[in-house]
Amino acid sequence: MSSEGPPKLALWRRVQQDIEQQIRDGSLPPGTRLPSESQLATSFDVHRHTVRRAIARLKEKELVTVVHGKGAYVADHQICYRVGRATRMTTAILRTGRTAQRRVLSSTEIPADKRLAALLSLPVGHPICRVRTLRMIDDQPVSLTTYFYPLPRFAGISRSIAETGSVSEALSRYGVTKMIRNDMHFRASLPSMQEAKTLRIGRSKPLVELLSVNLDASGVPVQHVHGKIVSEALDVVVSLND
């Protein structure tokens, strides 16, 4: 029987995890300037190159920002969401090591009005499943999203979303394993009384609205999305290279 214990973490990883823990437990709040590389090297009794690698990893995880000539600062709570033709918000959240959850608030069958019919390439009056969901990051509400799905193709989609907690995984049950955004619109708005209550924000807190139509691999519209995001929760960036 081997007497070897668990493998030791690399020095840079130990430094990175220690600083990351201080960020996550609030010991290092957003905007705090980290000690200099020399100070951190002395504090952890490691070489400056070790500290530099740890800081680089924290930057990759978007936990710190590095300002040339000034040092590293604890990033605010915004998550950088790079919107492209195929990127998903969940991916952006998980990349930072934070927890993403989705809750189904309601599900209703409605007839497609003229606007929805045009967006989803359906005849007016065609049945549609409207699903309203709440997105949580680390138990903090950050967005309300309404999805519209053509029926009968996506019958039971709300149950699948509730069971998996993921729209992508739910859609995969219907054979949709890849989606491409056909278009996307951005606009700003203030929350209604109910939206403010659900998102735990004041009525004066602005929301970023994202509206998109998503296609399956065959180019058929499968989903219209109307998301309302708390502006301070996400840094939305449009990627022209995706």
Automatic annotation (TrEMBL):
Identify the InterPro entries for this entry. Answer: Bact_HTH_transcr_reg, Chorismate_lyase_/UTRA_dom_sf, CP_lyase_PhnF, Tscrpt_reg_HTH_GntR, UTRA, WH-like_DNA-bd_sf, WH_DNA-bd_sf
Task: Please list the residue ranges annotated as the HTH gntR-type domain.
Answer: 9-77
Keyword Lipid metabolism annotated:
no
Pfam family of the protein (one): UTRA
Gene3D superfamilies, per database record: Chorismate lyase-like, Winged helix-like DNA-binding domain superfamily/Winged helix DNA-binding domain
Q: Which UniProt keywords apply?
A: DNA-binding, Transcription, Transcription regulation
PROSITE patterns (UniProt xref): HTH_GNTR
Entry GO MF terms? DNA binding; DNA-binding transcription factor activity
Tell me the Gene Ontology biological-process terms attached to this UniProt entry. negative regulation of DNA-templated transcription
State the protein's name.
GntR family phosphonate transport system transcriptional regulator
